[in-house]
């Protein structure tokens, strides 16, 4: 959600800022802009649409300079127009880029208008620029002016600020939205995500909530905490090599990320499996004590991560005997939850910056949970830093907005949690050992499923003209049906619903006719016979069935109304992981056929850092 980048260097920063915006584009892509200080004045370009539109402007009229700020937007306040694009200026005095929402902007705007300011945008952000200009006019330095200004702001923000009154410095502040400092040689940077800066550095400082930073001449970095005390924050080396943000030979990031799954599932398992069990220490040295106290689990997540949490409920209850509740973060954080003794609070987030999930974690503190575990893909993210323990999913950067490998590696992490907790609760039984053995073979089986890509692509033809689709599953595959439906809507804009197959006759069956494709996953589990009856109900109403089924499942596909694609055998416990893959590929190919923007679907953005 909105990407910020800023640079102070001894070389021209336009190219660095532009490349950074391209790498941040997954966060927002309705407009982009850049301000550079050139010969003592703020010079700016803004363009509606993708970063490429801004690049075209810059080609015609470059913005040379050694200090600058830039932004790619995902609008929350005001349409995606050039006037609403960031950076926002107040006259010639100050320029601001912002990720977040200023909740009290209406009151501030009235005050500023009464004081003589004219607003040129509908954004909440513009109040920050004018407020800063007023403080600067009183003779206050830029750093202190930012401090005084943010003290009046309510809501969430990460900001990058510059002013010709103090050329050569950029001030950043973080409150509720992510911001990292990139440490270079004689140069320094700010960005919403380290990925944007891997082109220039692999050394990062992850700012804490309330931190303010000044980047200055010669790469100086000065940080103060929310109480105004100067602080040293550790410099961390980013663990991924550059090049991760490229599509390679793939047409889209999403396809690349789908095909990376065998590799990243191996990475998520690496060093965490014992011979027949999963040691609690895989979750860190504090985990054994925490797990020993855990009697139940509350899982909190949003979107695709929420679906991973729903799968985990089936696993944790069946294989670890632990009661589980799963809830979306945006609901949980405004409830008045009653916390049962010994409840572990588990959050799931790809980025670790998902605003609602992070707020839910903060809200949960003090409610009596026994501890918190974050399952996350980004080391050093807010969620990881603020949780008692964390397990990294090791999926590597995920650029496609529709989550794929982040989901399956979350599932791996949740299965590790299941087996680890199950070990603490019961004597490890034969079933646990079987699942551990099956996990070791999972990457190879995933490769076999991905080899079905051509067949799935052929299948996708049947969906290109459709307006609706139903996804069905039972048990732990009901959340997989939900995830399949979400993927299809996200990237192909086909309206899709996921249902537990047993619910069909309680309503959705009314929608089934020859125009309604019904997609089902049918692994060979104890609910198979029940699922088969549900599928007969669809056929009896003239529905078109597409079934991803275990090779041993006898579903009659001799008639035209049923297409069955067989998947290799996998341990029943791991089937939800495996059956996710064909649904990802199906959505991908349908979207390609429909000609949608697969990696950056309309209205969406990755890393949802606003509420
Ligand atoms: N509220 C600002 C910034 C939006 C944002 O951070 N989105 O993730 C705007 O609408 O421009």
Keywords:
Glutamine Phosphoribosylpyrophosphate, subunit 1, domain 1; Rossmann fold; 8-stranded antiparallel beta sheet; 7-stranded antiparallel beta sheet; alpha/beta; binds glutamine hydroxamate; 25 strands; 611 residues
Give the CA-based shape.
globular
User: Quick one: how many beta strands?
Assistant: 25
Estimated structural class: alpha/beta
Major pleated sheet: 8 strands, antiparallel
Side-by-side strand order of the widest sheet: 3-2-4-1-10-9-11-15
What is the total domain count? 3
What is the CATH architecture annotation of the largest domain? 4-Layer Sandwich
CATH homologous superfamily of the largest domain?
Aminohydrolase, N-terminal nucleophile (Ntn) domain
So what's the CATH class of the largest domain?
A: Alpha Beta
CATH topology of the largest domain: Glutamine Phosphoribosylpyrophosphate, subunit 1, domain 1
* Low-pLDDT windows of residues: none
Number of helices: 18
Quickly describe the structure.
The protein is an alpha/beta fold.
Report on this model:
The protein is an alpha/beta fold and 611 residues long. The chain folds into three domains: 3-237, Aminohydrolase, N-terminal nucleophile (Ntn) domain (Glutamine Phosphoribosylpyrophosphate, subunit 1, domain 1), CATH 3.60.20; 253-447, Rossmann fold; 453-594, Rossmann fold, CATH 3.40.50.10490. It contains 18 helices and 25 strands. An eight-stranded antiparallel β-sheet has the order 3-2-4-1-10-9-11-15, with helices on one face. A seven-stranded antiparallel β-sheet has the order 5-6-7-8-12-13-14. The chain has a five-stranded parallel β-sheet with strand order 17-16-18-19-20, with helices on both faces. The chain is globular. Bound molecules: glutamine hydroxamate. The site of glutamine hydroxamate has 18 residues, from strand 6.
């Amino acid at each position: 959600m909105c990407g910020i980048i800023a640079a102070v260097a001894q070389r021209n920063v336009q190219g660095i800022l532009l490349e950074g915006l391209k790498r941040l584009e997954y966060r927002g892509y309705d407009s982009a802009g850049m301000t550079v200080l050139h010969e003592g004045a703020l010079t700016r370009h803004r363009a509606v649409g993708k970063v490429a539109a801004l690049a075209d402007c810059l080609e015609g009229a470059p913005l040379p300079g050694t200090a600058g700020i830039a932004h790619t937007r995902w609008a929350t306040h005001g349409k995606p127009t050039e006037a609403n694009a960031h950076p926002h200026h107040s006259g010639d005095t100050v320029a601001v880029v912002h990720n977040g929402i200023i909740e009290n902007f209406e009151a501030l705007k009235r005050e500023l208008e009464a004081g003589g300011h004219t607003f040129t945008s509908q954004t909440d952000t513009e109040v920050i620029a004018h407020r800063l200009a007023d403080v600067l006019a009183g003779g206050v330095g830029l750093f202190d002016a930012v401090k005084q200004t943010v003290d009046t702001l309510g809501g969430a923000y990460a900001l990058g600020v510059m002013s010709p009154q103090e050329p050569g410095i950029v001030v950043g502040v973080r409150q509720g939205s992510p911001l990292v400092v990139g440490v270079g040689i004689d140069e320094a940077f700010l960005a919403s995500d380290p990925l944007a800066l891997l082109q220039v550095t692999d050394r990062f400082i992850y700012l804490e909530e309330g931190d303010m930073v000044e980047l200055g001449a010669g790469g100086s970095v000065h940080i103060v905490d929310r109480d105004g005390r100067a602080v040293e924050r550790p410099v961390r080396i980013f663990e991924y090599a550059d090049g991760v943000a490229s599509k390679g030979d793939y047409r889209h990031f999403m396809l690349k990320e789908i095909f990376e799954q065998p590799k990243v599932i191996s990475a998520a398992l690496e060093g965490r499996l014992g011979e027949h069990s999963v040691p609690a220490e895989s979750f860190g040295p504090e985990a054994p004590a925490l797990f020993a106290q855990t009697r139940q689990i509350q899982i909190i997540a949003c979107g695709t991560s929420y679906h991973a949490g729903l799968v985990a409920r089936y696993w944790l209850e069946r294989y670890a005997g632990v009661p589980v509740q799963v809830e979306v973060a945006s609901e949980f954080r405004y409830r008045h939850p009653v916390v049962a003794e010994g409840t572990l609070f588990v959050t799931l987030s790809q980025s670790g910056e998902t605003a609602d999930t992070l707020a839910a974690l903060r809200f949960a503190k003090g409610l009596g949970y026994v501890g918190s575990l974050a399952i996350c893909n980004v080391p050093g993210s807010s969620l990881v830093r603020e949780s008692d323990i964390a397990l990294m999913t090791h999926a590597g950067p995920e650029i496609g907005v529709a989550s794929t490998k982040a989901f399956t590696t979350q599932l791996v992490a949740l299965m590790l949690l299941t087996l680890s907790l199950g070990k603490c609760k019961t004597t490890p039984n034969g079933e646990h050992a079987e699942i551990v053995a099956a996990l070791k073979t999972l990457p190879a089986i995933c490769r076999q499923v991905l080899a079905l890509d051509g067949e799935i692509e052929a299948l996708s033809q049947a969906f290109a003209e459709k307006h609706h689709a139903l996804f069905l599953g039972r048990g732990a595959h009901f959340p997989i049906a939900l995830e399949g439906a979400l993927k299809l809507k996200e990237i192909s804009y086909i309206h899709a619903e996921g249902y537990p197959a047993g619910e069909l006759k309680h309503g959705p069956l009314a929608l089934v006719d020859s125009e309604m494709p019904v997609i089902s996953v049918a692994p060979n589990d104890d609910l198979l016979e029940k699922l088969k009856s549900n599928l007969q109900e669809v056929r009896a109403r003239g529905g078109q069935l597409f079934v991803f089924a275990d090779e041993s499942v006898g579903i009659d596909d001799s008639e035209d109304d049923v297409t069955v694609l067989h998947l290799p055998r996998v341990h029943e416990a791991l089937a939800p992981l495996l059956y996710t893959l064909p649904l990802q590929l199906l959505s991908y190919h349908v979207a390609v056929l429909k000609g949608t923007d697969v990696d950056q679907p309309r209205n969406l953005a990755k890393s949802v850092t606003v509420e």
